[in-house]
Design a protein that fits this description.
The chain is α/β, with parallel strands linked by helices. The protein is built from nine helices and eight strands. The protein is globular. It starts with 19 loop residues before the first helix and ends with a helix.
């Protein structure tokens, strides 16, 4: 048996040398292995982009959906089988741009899933235009004079919506990031990990060195149960804070569904009443 059952051998990995995605791939697999998750009961869900390729390089079930649509698919997968560990992951453009509306409403629903967002502050797959989290002044081929928009703040948005777990990590800090990922996966409910990483090809501003200089961990006395304090730390711009900002116990989406009130079995174990299904379809024909 392999030491890490989530490592998939022989993959042709389509990332640039030095890309932060390599570190994320390694730490996600280590986090799942150390938590002793079962690969047969683990599902990775992603959208489109370089970050969204990670599920293809891991030994788990996976679902690659449309651009920005990872979270509704992940919510449905968890709702259909509550025994599964579901991890939705993609890049900042996929989750916060195309997927921004789904991001907001997934937080409202609070399904028991982990949302890992690779935040390199640029669109890497489509050759370097600004993403929702790009900083003001960042020059790109499509914004040669520099970005003029306020960057999207996913942590502040998540905390304002009372997300049940909100954290930020930096891939250059392996031990701290591994711990945060494990906390997020163990958390019962929606867990956001905004994971800072460099794009070594298309973002020459937010490098490994830049993140080292412009990030700082939350103070030791930070209280993750204090929503006001968490929001105050989330809106700080320089340095960007790292750590678990906010944590709260809340009712979980799939545990409140009517379908599980009298029958705890996952949907695939249930018999379909074809007569009732036919009557239902008949109502719409």
């Amino acid at each position: 048996m392999k030491a890490n059952p989530f490592v998939r051998e022989g993959c042709d990995i389509a990332w640039c040398p030095g890309c932060g995605n390599y570190g994320i791939l390694k730490l996600v697999s280590e986090a799942m292995s150390e938590l002793k998750l079962d690969p047969q009961q683990t599902v990775m869900v992603s959208g489109i982009g370089q970050a969204a390729k990670i599920p293809q390089y891991l030994q788990t079930h996976f679902f690659n959906g449309l651009h920005g649509r990872a979270l509704p698919a992940a919510t449905a997968i968890k709702a259909s089988n509550r025994a599964l560990t579901v991890i939705a992951e993609s890049g900042d453009g996929d989750m916060y741009g195309e997927g921004g509306n789904h991001f907001i409403h997934c937080i409202r629903r609070n399904p028991d899933l982990t949302n890992i967002v690779h935040n390199n502050m640029v669109y890497g797959l489509t050759k370097g235009q600004a993403s929702p989290t790009s900083q003001r002044g960042f020059a790109t081929p499509l914004q040669p004079a520099g970005v003029i928009l306020e960057p999207f703040n996913p942590l502040a948005v998540a905390i304002s919506l009372d997300a049940s777990f909100v954290a930020r990590a930096f891939i250059g800090h392996k031990e701290q990031t591994l711990d945060i990922l494990q906390q997020a996966i163990r958390h019962p409910g929606y867990a956001l990990v905004d994971l800072l990483q460099p794009c070594v090809t298309f973002n020459k501003l937010n490098t490994y060195q830049w993140f080292e200089s412009h990030t700082r961990y939350l103070d030791p006395d930070h209280d993750p149960g204090d929503r006001t304090q968490a929001f105050a730390r989330a809106i700080e711009e320089d340095p960007l804070r790292l750590g678990v900002f906010y944590r709260k116990e809340k009712p979980v989406f799939e545990e409140q569904l009517d379908g599980y009130k009298t029958d705890k079995r996952p949907l695939y174990q249930r018999q379909v009443d074809l007569a009732e299904l036919g009557k239902l379809v008949g109502e719409f024909t």
